[in-house]
Design brief:
The chain is mainly α. It has one domain (about 1-210). It has helices at about 1-30, 40-60, 70-100, 105-115, 120-140, 145-160, 165-195, 200-205, 210-215, and strands spanning about 60-65, 70. Strand 1 (about 60-65) and strand 2 (about 70) form a beta hairpin. The chain is globular.
Length: about 220
C-alpha cells in the first residue's frame, strides 16, 4: 500500500511540475515571439526541464526529518521516471508520425510548421544524462537542494494543498498510478507468456500516451 501511495504521490508531482513548466515554456514562447525552436535549443530546454524534474523527485524522496534519501522510495522513483521518459519518446514518435502525413503543398507546409521538434538520438542523450543526474543526486543528495528546485518543491506542495487544483491533480495522480500498474502487469504477463508487448501496443496506441496525457500540457 505504501508503494501505491508513493506512486500516486509521484503522479501528482509530475502532473503539477508539468503544469508549472508549461507556464514557464509559455513565457519563453512569448519572449521568442512565437518563433519555432531550433533542434539544439529545444533539447537544451528539455535537458534543463528533466534536470529539475529529477531534482524535484529526489527532494520528494528525502526523509525531511533526517535529510537522508529513502532508498526504497528512490528505487521506485527511478523505475517510474525511466518508464516516464520512455513513454515520452513513444509519444513524441507518435506525434511526429501524425504530422508527417502527405498532402497538398499548402497543407504540408502547415503540418511542417506544427510538427514538434524530435530527434531520437537527442532524446536518448537527454534521458541518459537525466538518469546520471538522478544517480548523482542519490550519491550526493545535498546537491539536490538549491533555490530553483526548492521553489518547484514548495510550489508543488502549495498547489497540491489547494482545494480545487489539488483535487484535479490528485485525480491525475490516480490515473497515473493506474497506468503504472497496467504497464507493470503487462510487462510481467509478457515475461510469463513469452509474448511481446508490441502487439498490444499497436492496438492500444493511446495507452502509450498515458504519461503525457496526465503529466504534461503542451
Amino acid at each position: 500500500m505504501d508503494i501505491l501511495n508513493f506512486i500516486f504521490r509521484l503522479g501528482v508531482v509530475l502532473a503539477i511540475f508539468g503544469f508549472l513548466w508549461w507556464l514557464i515554456n509559455l513565457g519563453l514562447n512569448v519572449i521568442r515571439g512565437g518563433r519555432k525552436k531550433m533542434l539544439t535549443e529545444a533539447y537544451i530546454i528539455k535537458l534543463v526541464r528533466y534536470f529539475f524534474l529529477v531534482d524535484v523527485v529526489i527532494l520528494f524522496c528525502l526523509d525531511q526529518s533526517q535529510g537522508q534519501i529513502d532508498l526504497n522510495n528512490t528505487i521506485i522513483a527511478g523505475l517510474v521516471l525511466l518508464m516516464y521518459f520512455i513513454g515520452k519518446i513513444q509519444n513524441a514518435q507518435l506525434r511526429q508520425s501524425i504530422f508527417s502525413v502527405q498532402g497538398n503543398m499548402g497543407m504540408q507546409n502547415i503540418m511542417n510548421q506544427m510538427k514538434p521538434v524530435f530527434n531520437v538520438r537527442y532524446e536518448a542523450v537527454v534521458i541518459v544524462i537525466s538518469v546520471l543526474f538522478f544517480i548523482g543526486f542519490i550519491l550526493y543528495p545535498n546537491y539536490a537542494i538549491n533555490p530553483i528546485s526548492n521553489w518547484f518543491y514548495e510550489a508543488i506542495v502549495d498547489i497540491e494543498d489547494t482545494p480545487v487544483f489539488g483535487f484535479i491533480f490528485k485525480v491525475i495522480g490516480f490515473f497515473f498510478m493506474v497506468s503504472i500498474i497496467m504497464k507493470v502487469v503487462q510487462g510481467f504477463t509478457a515475461l510469463i507468456t513469452g509474448n511481446s508487448m508490441n502487439n498490444n501496443d499497436n492496438n492500444q496506441d493511446d495507452s502509450n500516451d498515458d504519461f503525457d496525457d496526465y503529466t504534461e500540457i503542451k
